[in-house]
Amino acid sequence: MNRFAYLRADDVGAAVRAVAADPSARFIAGGTNLVDLIKENVERPTRIVDITRLPLGEIGPGERGGLRIGALVKNSDLAYHPEVERRYPLLSRAILSGASAQLRNMASTGGNLMQRTRCSYFYDTTTPCNKREPGTGCAALGGFNRMHAILGASEQCIAVNPSDMSVALAALEAVVHVTGPEGDRAIAFAEFHRLPGDAPQLDTNLRQGELITAVELPALGFAEHHAYLKIRDRASYAFALVSVAAALELQGGTVTEARVALGGVAHKPWRDREAEALLVGRRVALEHFQRVADALLQGAVGRGANDFKIELARRAIVRALSHAAGRTSRDDARR
Ligand code: SF4
After folding, report:
1. 324: Cβ below 6 Å to ligand 1?
2. Under a CB-based contact definition with an 8 Å cutoff, are residues 97 and 109 in contact?
C-alpha cells in the first residue's frame, strides 16, 4: 500500500481547501468503497481528508416542501427515517436492496453517490482499463462482460454504476448540493453522473475539491405508486443485473406523471423522458408499459455475455410499472 497523509477536517471550508490543493487527495467518510480501492492499489491518494466530524449528518425540511439529507447520513438511518419511509418509500426500498446491513450502517449518502464501478477489470491492476489508467484499453470489451452496460456505453468503457440509491434518486429528481473552492452550487441529479464517452476515468461532473454537502428531495415522493425491482444473481449482497425504479401519479386510473429509472445497465442511472411521456394521459395498461419499455431500450446494445440483459430489462420495466400502478401505501403496511 502507498503511504498517505491523514487529515481530519473541522469544517467544510478546511476539507474543501485540503482536497482542492491536491488532485490526488480524497475525502473519506464511511470508507466502504475507498478503502477497498486503496487496498487493491486502484486508488493511490497522497492525502486522505476525513470528513466524518463535519456537521452534515442531519435530515430536515428542504425547500418547497421537500426533504434535505445531509451528506453524512448513514444509508441505514436514511432508509429507516420515518419521513423517508412515509413520503419516499421508493428511496427506502432501493437503499435496503443494496449491500449488507453492516455496509449500510457505515456507508454515507454522499459516499453512495461517489462509489465506483464494480467492473472486475477495474479492480484487477494486471489488466488494461481506461477508467483506472486512461489510454490503456478496456479488457471488458472482449472479456467477461455479463454485468456490463447495454445503454450509453462507449468503445472506451462499458462499465455500469453500481448504486441502488442513485436509481431511486434519479427517479425522484433529487438535487445534489456541493461546496467547492468557488463556492456552493446545486446539481440536478440527471447531471451529476456522466456517461463514459472518451473520458471514462470521470464518474461524475464534480470539480476538483468539490464536496457533497446534502441531497435534496423534491416534495413529490410518489408514496402511493412506486416500485423498486432489483434483479440479481442472489437474494442479497449482490449488485444489480438490472434494476428499475418506477414511480407513477394516477388520477382515476389515468397516469398524470411517470418516472422510470434503470440501474445496472449504464454508466449512470438511465432515464428517457420521452419514453416516460408515452404513459402520461394513458390508462394503466400492460400494453402501454410495454411501449415504454421498448422506447427505453431503443438503442440498447449487448456485448455478448450481457445480451440477455436487454430482454431482462424489458420484462423488469413492465413488471415494475405494473407493481407501481397496483401498489398503495396500504399494501405496503400489510407486507
Ligand atoms: Fe475499465 Fe470500464 Fe473497461 Fe471495466 S468497462 S475494464 S472499468 S474501461
Report:
1. no
2. no
What is the distance between the alpha carbons of residues 236 and 181, in angstroms, rounded to a whole number?
A: 40
What does the domain layout of the chain look like in residue ranges? 226-328
For residue 141, the CA-to-ligand 1 centroid distance in Å is: 8
Q: Which of 40, 145, 157 to mutate to test the pocket of ligand 1 (most atoms within 8 A of CB)?
A: 157
Can you tell me which atom of ligand 1 is nearest the CA of 130?
8
**76-85 pLDDT per residue, tens:** 999 999 999 9
Does the global pTM surpass 0.85?
yes
Cβ 106 vs Cβ 98: under 8 Å? no
Write down the CATH number for the domain with range 226-328. 3.30.390.50
Strands 226-231 and 67-70: what pairing?
A: unpaired
Confirm if 316 and 322 have CB atoms less than 8 A apart: no
Strands lying side by side in the sheet with 25-28? 5-8, 47-50, 25-28
Residue nearest to atom 7 of ligand 1 (CA): 122
Å from CA of 310 to ligand 1 middle: 20
Per-residue pLDDT tens over the stretch 192-222: 999 999 999 999 999 999 999 999 999 999 9
3-state secondary structure of 36: helix
What average pLDDT does the segment 130-141 reach? 98
**Rg, Å, the chain Cα set:** 20
Atom of ligand 1 nearest to the CA of 120: 4
What residues form DSSP beta bridges with 211? Answer: 179
Closest listed residue to residue 205, CA positions, set 132, 155, 197: 197
